[in-house]
Write a structure and sequence with these properties.
The chain has a domain at 71-178: Umud Fragment, subunit A (Ribbon). 54% of the residues lie in helices and 20% in strands. It has 3 helices and 7 strands. It has helices at residues 2-70, 167-173, 177-219; strands spanning 73-76, 91-95, 107-111, 119-130, 133-139, 151-152, 156-164. Strand 3 and strand 4 form a beta hairpin. 18% of the residues are buried.
């Protein structure tokens, strides 16, 4: 009778221990699933922020660095005369080009009146010589007639190297030193955000591995 009485607490203790271990395992599995979902969201966030950072840096190189290397400049198209090739709001990067290297079909940016700041970008439709001087006949792609006056070589700022649609409106707002400051601040902010997300993702990855190890240990016989 004494032996039968002693076996009952042993069975109850074993059942209680098994039930507790099972609950802990389910809880750990749920935590692993939750952390996995959050980890996926953080990974997506890191990817998006990193991609945006790369895009911003690429635009900074294309708009600021490359033009500076060749002595060029970035300008904004304000009129409809070059639609659909260069609609209003397009950012054009202009590089200096010797007059004798400009060919028919090139888009040139030139001073409307020699010595003045106002410029326009139109396509060269022919080259002429007037009194031994090389001049260019230009026309906007959206215009029905050529420009009224031949363009002299001294008026030409350069040829359009490449362009970015709509980015010109941003360029118009960010002029001079403001542009470099905004680009630097934005790039720095995106870099810090991407770094923070990467650190958080790494910590969550370590946490998931620890939780998975705990689940495996609690489930072991």
């Amino acid at each position: 009778m004494t032996a039968a009485t002693a076996s009952v607490p042993t069975a109850i203790t074993t059942t209680t221990t098994t039930t507790t271990a099972s609950r802990r395992a389910h809880r750990d599995e749920a935590r692993v699933r939750t952390e996995g979902e959050h980890g996926l969201l953080h990974s997506v966030g890191v990817g998006l922020s990193s991609g945006l950072l790369v895009l911003l840096l690429a635009v900074a190189v294309a708009v600021v660095a490359l033009p500076a290397l060749v002595g060029g400049s970035a300008m904004t198209v304000l009129t409809q005369s070059m639609e659909p090739t260069l609609p209003p709001g397009t950012l054009v990067v202009v590089k200096p080009t010797p007059a004798d290297e400009i060919a028919v079909g090139d888009v040139v940016t030139y001073q409307i009146r020699s010595g003045e700041a106002a410029v326009v970008s139109h396509r060269v439709i022919s080259k002429t010589y007037a009194d031994g001087e090389l001049t260019f006949i230009t026309q906007g792609d959206n215009n029905t007639d050529p420009d009224p006056e031949p363009v002299r070589a001294v008026q030409i700022r350069g040829t359009v190297w490449y362009s970015f649609p709509l980015l010109g409106w941003v360029n118009s707002l960010l002029t001079g030193a403001n542009r470099a400051v905004v680009i630097a601040v934005a790039a720095g902010g995106l870099f810090l955000y991407a770094l923070t997300e990467a650190v958080m993702a790494a910590r969550q990855h370590i946490g998931r591995r620890a939780a998975a190890a705990a689940v495996a240990a609690s489930s072991a016989p």
